[in-house]
Amino acid sequence: MSKQFDVVVIGGGPGGYIAAIRAAQLGFNVACIDEWKNAAGGPAPGGTCTNVGCIPSKALLQSSEHFEHASKHFAEHGISTGKVEMDVAKMIARKDGVVKQNNDGILYLFKKNKVSFFHGRGSFVAAKDGAYEIKVAGAAEEVISGKQVIVATGSNARPLPGAEFDEVNILSNDGALRVGAVPKKLGVIGSGVIGLEMGSVWRRLGAEVTILEALPTFLGAADEAVAKEALKAFTKQGLKIELGVKISEVKNGKKGVTVAYTDAKGGAQELAVDKLIVSIGRVPNTTGLNTEAVGLQLDERGAIVVDGDCRTNLPGVWAVGDVVRGPMLAHKAEEEGVAVAERIAGQHGHVNFATVPWVIYTSPEIAWVGRTEQQLKADGVAYKAGQFPFLANGRARALGDTTGFVKIIADAATDEILGVHIVGPMASELIAEAVMAMEFKASSEDIARICHAHPSLSESTKEAALAVDKRTLNF
């Protein structure tokens, strides 16, 4: 007889492991299945985010930023270092160590919360006796049973047709995190989060980086003012960004990759690089789930169809994170995982898509929450906006990082904050105040009246709120 659980979670990424822990906290007997392996073949829960995404990319970004500071900026602080060299192998090893700490931390949390962990690939077998049988294909195959099932199998990198990933020359986010030496020339197809972050890492370490973007606009999802400021900063740093290109052919050879494309003016161009990162989006990971065995409904993209509460078409089966609709963000998956566990317990789990923050960990960092100015214009919403530059912020001057600004958009009639957009130092941390303010339906006046520590970068948020009413104090 198979092991029986109240809740079985398929996938141990941010959505899955958090759902499992929350369900266990609520008193359920929980199992979590995850197939990620470390170099030794052992379990490595945490999904794409921990293993080949958010966490390792931040580790490399930190290392490369230290290198750039030491080689280019220490002198202005009176620090003499001599010639600075980067040991790429050691940098990659540190990144791997950070990943392992997170893997081990999740395994510890499973043990602490009495979540039964199964290392292997989970797939549906059948619906039987009011529960679902799930096969775990690991070192030893077994079948477990769950009254409730949460699918959190994440997403995979989308390949470019005719340029399949070999993770040697043509790289996904996975291969981009394992490059053994600084490439002389690096090409990136796609100017989204992964492309910009990985391009920034290797540019800082000395690579000549060219980013090719099919769309005619840069960072179309961001506020236009933020995108314009970011493009100016990245170009000044040395990133070459071409917009409106059309890829015609990619040739992968022994000496590197050649990309033939048409530029925005219709001219034929060719780019020869040592390595090519393809970051043109991600696709839901449902292959191998055996959804047909139980009749689980997928859409034309291969994503699991869910309602607003993450319920699928099957009773007792839920899905969260990248494998369903909505932004493919780790923190969105976590919130859905918690909400589903609470709904299973009869509570009212809640996820507010309007206040999910977005962050790009480049330098300058980019972060936003809520609607952009162009979205509000398109929707015919009357608004007022205020902006404050980090150039006028004392802490930013002391840091030596004054690029960018904070921008707050509020309703013209009610003053309720509709969106906050930041490009500049520590934007990833500053955005949290904006998220909280919007969750509590704050007005720009509310932030303008709150005492912010001096000197701090957060004062720029206060000043941007004051700017909504055209009464900044320091600019």
TL;DR?
With 475 residues, the chain is an alpha/beta fold. The protein is 32% helix and 26% strand. Residues 5-337 form the FAD/NAD(P)-binding domain.
Which tags fit this structure?
single chain, 475 residues, alpha/beta, FAD/NAD(P)-binding domain, Enolase-like, domain 1, 3 domains, five-stranded mixed beta barrel, five-stranded parallel beta sheet, 13 helices, globular
Structural overview:
The chain is α/β, with parallel strands linked by helices and 475 residues long. The protein folds into three domains: 3-157 and 283-351, FAD/NAD(P)-binding domain; 170-280, FAD/NAD(P)-binding domain, CATH 3.50.50; 355-468, 2-Layer Sandwich (Enolase-like, domain 1). Helices cover 32% and strands 26% of the residues. It is built from 13 helices and 21 strands. The chain has helices spanning 14-25, 47-52, 54-73, 88-112, 173-176, 193-204, 224-237, 330-344, 373-379, 394-399, 427-439, 444-449, 459-468, and strands at residues 3-10, 30-34, 116-128, 131-138, 142-151, 155-157, 170-171, 185-189, 208-212, 240-242, 246-253, 256-262, 268-273, 275-278, 282-284, 317-319, 358-360, 365-370, 383-389, 405-411, 417-424. A five-stranded mixed barrel has the order 1-2-3-4-5. A five-stranded parallel β-sheet has the order 7-14-8-9-10. The termini are far apart. The model has no long low-confidence stretch (mean pLDDT 97). Its EC number is 1.8.1.4. It is found in: Cytoplasm. The active site is at residue 454.
Blueprint of the fold:
Blueprint: E1 3-10, H1 14-25, E2 30-34, H2 47-52, H3 54-73, H4 88-112, E3 116-128, E4 131-138, E5 142-151, E6 155-157, E7 170-171, H5 173-176, E8 185-189, H6 193-204, E9 208-212, H7 224-237, E10 240-242, E11 246-253, E12 256-262, E13 268-273, E14 275-278, E15 282-284, E16 317-319, H8 330-344, E17 358-360, E18 365-370, H9 373-379, E19 383-389, H10 394-399, E20 405-411, E21 417-424, H11 427-439, H12 444-449, H13 459-468
Parallel strand pairs: 1-2, 1-5, 2-3, 5-16, 7-14, 8-9, 8-14, 9-10
Antiparallel strand pairs: 3-4, 4-5, 6-15, 11-12, 12-13, 17-18, 18-21, 19-20, 20-21
Helix pairs in contact: 1-8, 3-4, 3-6
